């Protein structure tokens, strides 16, 4: 019975092998049929569709069919006709002629029907499996390589479950005779269109058209049925990839611009590196199609990132930067920019607002500047896109989107690609879908992909977030355009990442001066024979009658003329300012000339009422019936006691800074690993209800009416990706405080690329002002070499102030010095100064990155407290904190002045007190290390003119601050006296992991610091 029920289910739509088993049954001219769709009997003398008998296993049905056959052999399917003939021939004389069939006959008929039903079910299941095999693995045999010599997946093996030859039908238990049988199509395919059945031959043909042509689709790993069905419909529906003649002409025009731009550069500057797009010219119409489709869906801002290959073409033909501005960059006599060094032309970015001609809607396009660290820009783009969405209230990404372009080798090889993908669906980092376009040269610089990656495709990393991947032959422009349409629709529909893999080639070497035949002779022999895609596509459209040869040539001549005119104009163009290449302008922040609106900084102090209000909120739970952890209750009670006594620790100082800025409408965003609680359990900016899962409270968002929002978010375990993201976020809005905190300062080294390429040098290369703040926990506390040092020496080495020149300014020394620096490096020793420097970061009339070496043990140190008076109105950040004890009252008696920074001050102060040297030793703290406070250090050196100068640090001599401060101290004193070093000896590792060794080192250099005769003896 089960076989017949299965048979009934399979055959409802009809099948030549089963649904026509019974052509007619019953007696007389009116035949009785059972309609499987209605489940009831109907009478008809003829039929147009196969109908299924009601119960194929009942004896009455067998009898009725048998009598129908006796009446006319054509009343039943030919298989039953043959069966009844055999039964009749083998039956004893007279048995077959009985009025009712014998029991033997019924048994044989029933057995035969069961066998037939099982065969029909198996064949249908085989066909369904075949369809699924194409959906899963069809991309492996797609014709993706324009050169026809490589496989995009690095493997020429054809999966055994794909039908490419007739003899492989046997894999499914089928043979050539089944090719013309019709089979019911499953609901998980759209290849039938309006048809529910198709012959096997046509099924295979349509599957190969959908999945094995110039497009290879990877999507069956997605664990969402609706998304899979959506993709199937886009690629399986018959005739869906259609273009109007107008669309084809637009595509041709864009391809002309892309190709002729590269040709023009090659003619004019044949010996210049330009990292042209030759071999993948289709990228330009591809990007424009994505933008057009996205604009039609409501997107009005697109942030893009890409490596250097094809950048000039994208700037010219997608962003629509003036061609004369681009051509000027090739002038060897180009004057240096009056601000910054600039960067090579194929690293620069651009921002442009224009009208999208296809949709007649305004759109803003921004291409981010990027160094040769190819994928480093990925998280930066995502951060900027997230910021624009945040400030516009675009919570679903319906107005702002990002597009990332990649090279195949970098996409597969660079870990930041994974880190960026991993952020794509995290609540505080998602941009609601990014369209990734891989320009797949099928080669790195000179490295063959077979030794460059372990994955079949360069795009396999995208599978980690269930992003569909569309591989497409870049020499088929219409296939590329269709894929781009689908990708834009996917992003608009599902707000998830999607990848387009443009399988192409690189017509020249890594750059135009390189010889690729050295390492890829076979590939480049074929490339030399390869017809250009523009020639192939123009010939196709001319043959179709879409354009004429004359129209094509006129379009080419038209664009060539545009280029020539721009070239002539560029000769007169004087680019003395790199601001033409800004990718993140702040028009309301600077003057029209790009200068700060003032060169002063307001005091950063606060009123008593503000301090009390913030302090009370920081030590309470604003929500009713909110159960917090007993340990957190103790912390809040401790805060309340501090507020009552008008004091603050480090956590309260931070609260004061953030809360006061929120009051002034400044958005504050703090991101990083464990920042909500704080690595050292000091912050607790997010309170968790201990009885209600996922119920949280952020007291900072309950400070004031109409305050700016406070965003505090734990990140994934990433430094490179997350720091890049926050850097991009900070680019969008100068009136926001964006902070990234490392779990330990040591761990910023895995984000060193972002620090070196974007933060340290971004303004010099790209006039990119950025006010991002890095919080780096730092301090030698015996915790080992990976949990001690934030490597201050690295930041100081990259600071650009001149150690041998004492700066002279006519105005505000502090502000002028900050304006000239590339970043600010501080190591605050008091909560008040920490608060001041955060507030100064926003009150400055310009933006510079701020590096803060934050404490660990000082978070709860009883001496590391500040009074509310230190934050009172009129107070400000202290770049240097002088000695305010007995030594300062009698400077002539001071024998030694110890300069230091950070935590070591408290150890020095304790040691001085123990040795009763308060009148003989002055201890001065450098809170701002870079730019170096020359003016304040000179005041202190002059004040203690008779004392010897010592620099004391807890870091090893070859690390920390000594190499930076020593020449600057000598400049201050005009080399009239030395600056002695006190600290740990040089070492390879930044700290010991042995507690006893750590304490011995500390005792040794503390003893040296207060041995007043040590240096005189050494000098002798």
Automatic annotation (TrEMBL):
<keyword id="KW-0560">Oxidoreductase</keyword>
<dbReference type="GO" id="GO:0045252">
    <property type="term" value="C:oxoglutarate dehydrogenase complex"/>
</dbReference>
<feature type="domain" description="Transketolase-like pyrimidine-binding">
    <location>
        <begin position="648"/>
        <end position="861"/>
    </location>
</feature>
<dbReference type="Pfam" id="PF02779">
    <property type="entry name" value="Transket_pyr"/>
</dbReference>
<dbReference type="GO" id="GO:0006096">
    <property type="term" value="P:glycolytic process"/>
</dbReference>
<dbReference type="InterPro" id="IPR031717">
    <property type="entry name" value="ODO-1/KGD_C"/>
</dbReference>
<keyword id="KW-0809">Transit peptide</keyword>
<dbReference type="InterPro" id="IPR042179">
    <property type="entry name" value="KGD_C_sf"/>
</dbReference>
<keyword id="KW-0496">Mitochondrion</keyword>
<dbReference type="Pfam" id="PF16078">
    <property type="entry name" value="2-oxogl_dehyd_N"/>
</dbReference>
<keyword id="KW-0106">Calcium</keyword>
<keyword id="KW-0460">Magnesium</keyword>
<keyword id="KW-0539">Nucleus</keyword>
<dbReference type="Pfam" id="PF16870">
    <property type="entry name" value="OxoGdeHyase_C"/>
</dbReference>
<dbReference type="GO" id="GO:0046872">
    <property type="term" value="F:metal ion binding"/>
</dbReference>
<dbReference type="Pfam" id="PF00676">
    <property type="entry name" value="E1_dh"/>
</dbReference>
<dbReference type="GO" id="GO:0006099">
    <property type="term" value="P:tricarboxylic acid cycle"/>
</dbReference>
<comment type="similarity">
    <text>Belongs to the alpha-ketoglutarate dehydrogenase family.</text>
</comment>
<dbReference type="InterPro" id="IPR005475">
    <property type="entry name" value="Transketolase-like_Pyr-bd"/>
</dbReference>
<keyword id="KW-0479">Metal-binding</keyword>
<dbReference type="GO" id="GO:0004591">
    <property type="term" value="F:oxoglutarate dehydrogenase (succinyl-transferring) activity"/>
</dbReference>
<keyword id="KW-1017">Isopeptide bond</keyword>
<protein>
    <recommendedName>
        <fullName>2-oxoglutarate dehydrogenase complex component E1</fullName>
        <ecNumber>1.2.4.2</ecNumber>
    </recommendedName>
</protein>
<dbReference type="GO" id="GO:0030976">
    <property type="term" value="F:thiamine pyrophosphate binding"/>
</dbReference>
<dbReference type="GO" id="GO:0005739">
    <property type="term" value="C:mitochondrion"/>
</dbReference>
<dbReference type="InterPro" id="IPR032106">
    <property type="entry name" value="2-oxogl_dehyd_N"/>
</dbReference>
<dbReference type="GO" id="GO:0005634">
    <property type="term" value="C:nucleus"/>
</dbReference>
<dbReference type="InterPro" id="IPR011603">
    <property type="entry name" value="2oxoglutarate_DH_E1"/>
</dbReference>
<keyword id="KW-0786">Thiamine pyrophosphate</keyword>
<dbReference type="InterPro" id="IPR001017">
    <property type="entry name" value="DH_E1"/>
</dbReference>
<keyword id="KW-0324">Glycolysis</keyword>
<dbReference type="InterPro" id="IPR029061">
    <property type="entry name" value="THDP-binding"/>
</dbReference>
<keyword id="KW-0832">Ubl conjugation</keyword>
């Amino acid at each position: 019975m089960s076989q017949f029920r299965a048979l009934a289910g399979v055959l409802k739509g009809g099948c030549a092998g089963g649904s026509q088993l019974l052509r007619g049954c019953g007696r007389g001219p009116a035949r009785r049929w059972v309609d499987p769709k209605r489940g009831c009997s109907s009478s008809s003398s003829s039929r147009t569709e196969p109908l299924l008998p009601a119960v194929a296993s009942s004896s009455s049905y067998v009898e009725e069919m048998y009598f129908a056959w006796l009446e006319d052999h054509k009343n039943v399917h030919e298989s039953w006709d043959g069966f009844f003939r055999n039964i009749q021939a083998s039956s004893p004389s007279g048995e077959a002629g009985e009025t009712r069939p014998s029991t033997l006959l019924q048994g044989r008929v029933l057995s035969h029907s069961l066998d037939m039903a099982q065969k029909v079910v198996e064949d249908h299941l085989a066909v369904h499996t075949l369809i699924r095999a194409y959906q899963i693995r069809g991309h492996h045999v797609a014709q993706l390589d324009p050169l026809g010599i490589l496989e995009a997946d690095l493997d020429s093996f054809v999966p055994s479950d794909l039908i490419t030859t007739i003899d492989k039908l046997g894999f499914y238990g089928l043979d050539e005779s089944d090719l013309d049988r019709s089979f019911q199509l499953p609901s998980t395919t759209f290849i039938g269109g309006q048809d529910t059945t198709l012959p096997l031959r046509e099924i295979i043909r349509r599957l190969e058209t959908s999945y094995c042509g110039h497009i290879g689709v990877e999507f069956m790993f997605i664990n969402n049925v609706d998304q899979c069905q959506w993709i199937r419909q886009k690629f399986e529906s018959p005739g869906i990839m259609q273009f109007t003649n107008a669309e084809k002409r637009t595509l041709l025009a864009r391809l002309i611009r892309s190709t002729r731009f590269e040709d023009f550069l090659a003619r004019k500057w044949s010996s210049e590196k330009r990292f042209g797009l030759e071999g993948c010219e289709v990228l330009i119409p591809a990007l424009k199609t994505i933008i057009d489709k996205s604009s039609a869906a409501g997107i009005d801002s697109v942030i893009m990132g890409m490596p250097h290959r094809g950048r000039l073409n994208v700037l010219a033909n997608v962003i629509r930067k003036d061609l004369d501005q681009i051509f000027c960059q090739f002038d060897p006599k180009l004057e240096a920019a009056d601000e910054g060094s600039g960067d090579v032309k194929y690293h620069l970015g651009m921002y442009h607002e224009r009208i999208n001609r296809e949709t007649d809607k305004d759109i803003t396009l921004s291409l981010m500047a990027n160094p040769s660290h190819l994928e480093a820009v990925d998280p930066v783009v995502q951060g900027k896109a997230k910021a624009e969405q945040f400030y516009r209230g675009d919570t679903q990404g319906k107005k702002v989107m990002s597009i990332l372009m990649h090279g195949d080798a970098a996409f597969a090889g660079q870990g930041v690609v994974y880190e960026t993908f991993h952020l794509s669906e995290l609540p505080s980092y998602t941009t609601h879908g990014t369209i990734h376009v891989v320009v797949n040269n099928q080669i790195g610089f000179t490295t063959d992909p077979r030794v460059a990656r372990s994955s079949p495709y360069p795009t396999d990393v995208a599978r980690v977030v269930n992003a569909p991947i569309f591989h497409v032959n870049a020499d088929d422009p219409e296939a590329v355009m269709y894929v781009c349409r689908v990708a834009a629709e996917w992003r608009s529909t599902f707000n998830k990442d999607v990848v387009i893999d443009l399988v192409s080639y690189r017509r020249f070497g890594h750059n135009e001066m390189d010889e690729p035949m050295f390492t890829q002779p076979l590939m480049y022999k074929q490339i030399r024979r390869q017809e250009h895609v523009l020639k192939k596509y123009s010939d196709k459209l001319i043959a179709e009658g879409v354009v004429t040869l004359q129209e094509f040539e006129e379009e080419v001549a038209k664009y060539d003329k545009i280029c020539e005119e721009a070239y002539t104009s560029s000769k007169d163009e004087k680019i003395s300012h790199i601001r033409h290449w800004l990718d993140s302008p702040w028009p309301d922040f600077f003057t029209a000339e790009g200068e700060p609106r003032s060169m002063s900084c307001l005091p950063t102090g606060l009123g008593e009422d503000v301090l009390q209000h913030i302090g009370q909120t920081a030590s309470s739970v604003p929500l009713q019936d909110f159960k917090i952890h007993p340990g957190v209750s103790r912390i809040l009670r401790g805060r309340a006691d501090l507020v009552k006594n008008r004091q603050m620790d480090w956590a309260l100082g931070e609260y004061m800074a953030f809360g006061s800025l929120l009051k002034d409408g400044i958005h504050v965003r703090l991101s990083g690993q464990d920042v909500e609680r704080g690595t050292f359990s000091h912050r607790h900016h997010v309170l968790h209800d201990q009885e209600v899962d996922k119920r949280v409270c952020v007291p900072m968002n309950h400070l004031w009416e109409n305050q700016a929002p406070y965003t505090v978010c734990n990140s994934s375990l990433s430094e490179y990706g997350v720091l890049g993201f926050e850097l991009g976020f900070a680019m969008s809005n100068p009136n926001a405080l964006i902070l990234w905190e490392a779990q330990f300062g040591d761990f910023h080294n895995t984000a060193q690329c972002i620090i070196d390429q974007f933060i340290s040098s971004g303004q010099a290369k790209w006039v990119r002002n950025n006010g991002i703040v890095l919080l780096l926990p730092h301090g030698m506390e015996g915790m080992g070499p990976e949990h001690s040092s934030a490597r201050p020496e690295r930041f100081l080495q990259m600071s650009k102030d001149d150690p041998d020149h004492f700066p002279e300014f006519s105005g505000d020394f502090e502000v002028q010095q900050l304006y000239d620096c590339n970043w600010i490096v501080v190591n605050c020793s008091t909560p008040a100064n920490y608060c001041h420097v955060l507030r100064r970061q926003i009150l400055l009339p310009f933006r510079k990155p701020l590096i803060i070496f934050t404490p660990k043990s000082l978070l709860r140190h009883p001496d590391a407290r500040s009074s509310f008076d230190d934050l009172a109105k009129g107070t400000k950040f202290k770049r240097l904190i002088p000695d305010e004890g007995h030594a300062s009252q009698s400077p002539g008696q001071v024998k030694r002045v110890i300069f230091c920074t950070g935590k070591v001050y408290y150890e020095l102060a304790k040691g001085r007190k123990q040795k009763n040297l308060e009148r003989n030793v002055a201890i001065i703290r450098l809170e701002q290390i870079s730019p170096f406070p020359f003016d304040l250090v000179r005041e202190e050196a002059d004040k203690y003119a008779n004392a010897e100068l010592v620099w004391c640090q807890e870091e090893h001599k070859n690390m920390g601050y000594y190499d930076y401060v020593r020449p600057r101290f000598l400049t201050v004193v005009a080399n009239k006296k030395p600056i002695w070093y006190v600290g740990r000896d040089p070492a390879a590792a930044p700290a010991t992991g042995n507690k006893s060794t750590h304490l011995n080192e500390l005792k040794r250099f503390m003893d040296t610091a207060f041995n007043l005769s040590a240096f005189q003896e050494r000098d002798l």
